Amino acid sequence: MKKVLVYLSVSIILLGLCSSCTNTNGNQEENKVESIDYENAYNQYSESFTELNDIEKMDIDENLTKAVLYYTDSEGYLVPVMRQVPKQEGIAKSVINALINNSENRIDLRETGLKPHLPEGMEFELALKEENLMRISFDDKILTFSNEEEEKTAVQAIVYTLTEFETVDKVQILVDNKIVNTLAKGTEVGEPLTRGNINSLNNLPQGEYVKITLYSYNNTTNNYTYYIPITKNIVKDQKEIQSIVEEQINLNKEMGKPIPEGLELVSIIVEDSTAFMTIKNQIETKDENFERFMKAICLALGQNEEINSVKLVIEDQDVNNMEILTFSVPIFANVYE
Q1: What span, in angstroms and rounded, lies between the C-alpha atoms of 138 and 93?
Q2: pLDDT tens across 275-305, in order?
Q3: Which of 56, 58, 225, 332 is the least buried, fewest Cβ under 10 Å from its Cβ?
Q4: Is 15 domain-assigned?
Q5: Which of these, 308, 332, 334, 303, lies nearest to 232 by C-alpha position?
Q6: In terms of C-beta density within 10 A (0-12 exposed, 13-18 middle, 19 or more buried), how is residue 282 classed?
Q7: What is the Cα–Cα distance from 234 to 259, expressed in whole angstroms?
Q8: How many domains does the chain divide into?
Q9: Do 83 and 111 meet the contact criterion of CB atoms below 8 Å apart?
Q10: Closest C-alpha to 193, from 208, 183, 207, 202
Q11: Residue 144: which domain range?
């Protein structure tokens, strides 16, 4: 991955969010799925790639449009991924179908280490109502999760994925076209749901606090590093930008992610849309751990809309050896074709 990350101008084209608002899992689709030799596909899969989460590797196809889907990883975290999907009517139905944990979708994601979270064979209907409300009615497969955590994660994946569309602000989940207060394991769905507090640490500091988004990451396939948004509450501070960087470094430590050896933060200031992050000591800047560390820093700083680039200033006793590295703030954490 190059040190200078690039912007992607995202324009999700909504072509009839829920035309023919039923999930079609008919014989034609079943035959198509059964014709794929999934075992062979796995066996032939090569791990020769090194990094696929790179916008420069995405081929832009005019017949496709962008959509953001929320998958889960092996630790149960929700992970947003920007995908290219066919331009078509009923695109909302298409993205929910992509969240169903069937063989075809698992094969599609095999390089990422992520998985779709909804039960195989699930059927649903969609209807876009007034005030940007999307109603989605599932069959009783929505009641088959083994525990509350899995059930809650599935609901969040549905809500986050649908509210990525500009015309959807909230989601009402129904079972067999009926409003229920809770699902089988206790997840509350009686009222329309909105997005917020993704992968929250649920910490409550004393006094006035603000919510920030930090980023962990994983690479379980040696091909794809995915970044995980983590919501944390921190004490409100006049030096909020520096606090974000300090909290990001602390999160790396807590989650066992490498930090450049010898790194010592001196200051961080913002000038003309650029965050200048000054550190002491020379550090290793040529390996993938540094690249991942800096992308997480850039993503965390990117929640401040004023910041669109980061300059890492590495101080040295000899001023002539001072090093400055420039990074653009990525507009999205994860991209996968």
Answers
A1: 12
A2: 999 998 888 898 899 999 999 999 999 999 8
A3: 56
A4: no
A5: 303
A6: middle
A7: 21
A8: 2
A9: no
A10: 183
A11: 27-175
